[in-house]
Amino acid sequence: MSGFLVLTVRIAVGGVFLVAVCGKVAGRAAFGRFAGWLAALLRPRLRRPVAIGLIAAEAAVVVLLAIPGTRFAGLAAAAVVLTGFAAAIVVLVRRGHRVPCRCLGTTGTRPMGTAEVLRNLVLAAASVAAVASGPGAPAAPADAVAAVFLGVTSALLIVRLDDVLALFGVTAGRSRP
Fold it and tell me: What is the Cα 33 distance to its own chain's centre?
């Protein structure tokens, strides 16, 4: 079972981080939108280097998760990055900032809030659970196919979280953690 869990989480978390990196480096405007949400947290001279560092950390997670021998380091790094992002979102919201999520390189207008904090903490918890499950036996071929399907489906749902929330009528007014 641990092989199934680790593979599923690696694909889900890796997919989310890959989309996040690609969305943030898709061009000058995308990078500017991402660096811009840091305005409420950092001094102007720190925004660009911190944004570059965060993107580099996310890219490192993707690489670590893609290499079987470093998968647990990738999962641990993902948990740290996700927890940091969740904490930053809580700080922003508690300070009264209504900043749109640029986590995945999106251009949405719904302010960050509880949904983004929960998304990050659930992904962090899944990463920690996968690490805690240990290396175990590799997933059997049928299990590996199921793990890939579940991981990709999970990543797609997470990436399209704003659309999923809109289906259920979640609006900016109910997004405060």
Answer: 17
Give per-residue pLDDT as tens, 106-122. Answer: 666 778 888 889 999 99
For residues 142 and 32, give the distance between their C-alpha atoms in angstroms, rounded to a whole number. Answer: 43
The count of structural domains within the chain is: 1
Structure tokens given for 139? 């997933």
Assess contact for 10 and 75: CB atoms under 8 A: yes
| Region of residue 114 (phi > 0: left; psi between -120 and 50: alpha; otherwise: beta) | alpha
Structural Rg of the chain based on CA atoms: 16
175 has a pLDDT exceeding 50: no
Please name the residue that has the structure tokens 């999970």. Answer: 154
Distance CA 78, CA 82 (A): 6
Residue 100 in 3-state DSSP?
A: strand
* Residue 81: domain span: 2-174
Packed helices 2-24 and 28-37: angle between N→C axes, nearest 10 degrees: 110
Residue with tokens 């903490």: 121
Q: Which pTM value belongs to this model?
A: 0.89
